[in-house]
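S.,

Sequence below, as promised.
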Amino acid sequence: MDFSFKKAQPLLLYVLFFGPSILYLTTVCPNMYWRDAPEFEAVAYQLGIAHPAGSPLYALITKIFTFLPFGNIAFKVNLASAFFGALLILLTFFLITECLEFLFPSKDKTLLLLSSTIATSFYAVSNSLWYNSIMAEVYTLQNCFIVSIAICLLKGLKKKEKLPFLYTGAFLFGLSTGAHIIMILYIPALLLFLWLFFRKHLPLSQLGIIIMFVILGASVYLYLPVRSSVDPYYDWGNPEKAKNFITHVTDRKDAKRHFFFSAEKFTKTLKKYCRYYFEDFNVLGLILGLTGIITFLRKNPKLFLALGAFFFSQWWFFIRYWPWSSAFIPTFLFFTVGIGTGIYLIIQYGYKISKEYTGVTHRHHFLSGAMVTLCGVQIFFLALVHWQSNNRGNYWSPYEFFKYLYEQMDFKGVLANSIYYFGTSYLQQCENYRLDITNLFLSEVFEPKHFNTITSDRYPLIKVPKKEGAKIGEAIINANITNHSFYWDPTSINIHLVQKNLHPYGLLFRVTPSPHPITPEVKKQHSEKIQRFFNKYTQIFYQYNDSEENLLYYLILDKLGDFFYKRNEYPITIAHFLIANQLMPRSVHILNSLGSCWASMGNYAKAKTYFEKALSIKPTHIPTLKNLGQLYFETGKYSLSISYFHQILRKEPENIIAHFHLGLCYHKLGKLKKSKEYFSKVIALGPDDPLAIKAKKKLSMICTP
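The prediction came back faster than expected:
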């Protein structure tokens, strides 16, 4: 047994690393991806400072990958995620092995090796890990640290000389914060682990040394002020100053989100989180994992509690609002340990039963073979499904999208943008594309303390007036608009500041020097640009059906549609919303918006269809309930209108709009007492609300004989 174990283990380690490596490499994105990926790619290339809390270790490590002698910068940095994804699988194998040795002291090493390998293979083909291994992100690196720290803790429990492992784990923990600052949430679980298992063997002096190792690892954050002092392109928050450094590392820009809680959001995220388990492991994996988790708890509740608390350390923070699987990978890794435990238990128990009733020992091999076959089939189909959903080997859509944006702009134009910024910056900073364009980051205009300061050095192609605060944005436009074409990101939350001067321009808005009416020619050119883009990339779009791409196009079309809706341009509004509906067919917001457009055009039958579709997806959606109630009021169906406004009040008892419309409905039905009651409620709830003035007029009419 031992001989075969020692002989097979090195080969398996190679397979467990290079197998996932090949899977991830064949599917890795060939250029930039959406969201934060282009920023991380540019930061790695230029050794810049990423968004809070900076991820200094990630920047330093991925910089090494940019020296590879092939591919573009984005591809090289994407390879780092694939590498650490494969390394994570190898580390997970060691973690499961360590846990099984605790739970099953007999240590049938061949069975232990088999169980660890199968369990690790399950997670190697999981969707959550695969998705995060094909693009530039910090999560595979972060989770390599999480598993490594857990292994050090387990090794410290087994070995007589515990301190070297504790020192190593402490250093890795400090270093891990440089991958993602969220690692500070692991401190309570680490203290719990030390108290449960090491309190009798760890004098205060040694605890001080452990803390010193943590500080030593965390000293990687010195990178931020040092690198900021030379003003790299990505220099979020200028952390060269102590105050700025603290603001950046503590992510003050998202301070409200740190303590945000919504029961509705929590429930929605929790449901999505539970679905990830089925998506990652399917039925067989879930059965094995749950069996193993229960076994782990029964055999060693103390270790189960300690490891469970550790791997779920960031779960409670993100489950409130984070919809993506990336934040929950540590919990899936803990479940993978459960899968390994479940496999070991089932084979061992089957072998025991077989021996007791038949006296035949060679059935051990039969049971092992059956388990390998069954799990192998499941893993194969999971790999096939997830390969298809995550294959981005020829996915150039992000690159083409941002390049298309630049192609629409005049020479020496100015692009004021927010969501577009990472992709457009990557093209300029890493591929030297359209360096004539001034890429103005709107967050630097409105929140310089969290982002960067607008200076002539950062934006040398335009005049930068000396203004403080948000006024600098208006000053820049006024100082440059006669000599430069200005373009605006449609998804920007600050768009209201230039609303009157905007002209639709395909996937952008163009800012005019003064307000001008939107002519039919402008609308025609805008529609042609939209159609040209979607016609060109429709085939690729449907081939990949990428959720991030869907979301971006959806946001753009929604904002463009809203722009036209506010101008009562309903046909062109509907055209935008219909494309958005194709991208997100279950978007309640878009369905409600389409219904509103048709209602505004007087087509109540079509409006009703869209409103009802929206409510079939989310029966408690307040805007749709209001619109449908309004529709029935306008068509004289007052009883139906009343039912919808009452539904609103069941969820929002102090909704002034609902109370006002109920007053109108009851007045139309001749139920004056009821009408008076609801109008009075409107006045009581919002004395200064415009509806309160209307309610007073209605009340005066009711009171008049």
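The longest helix spans residues 263-299.

Coffee later?
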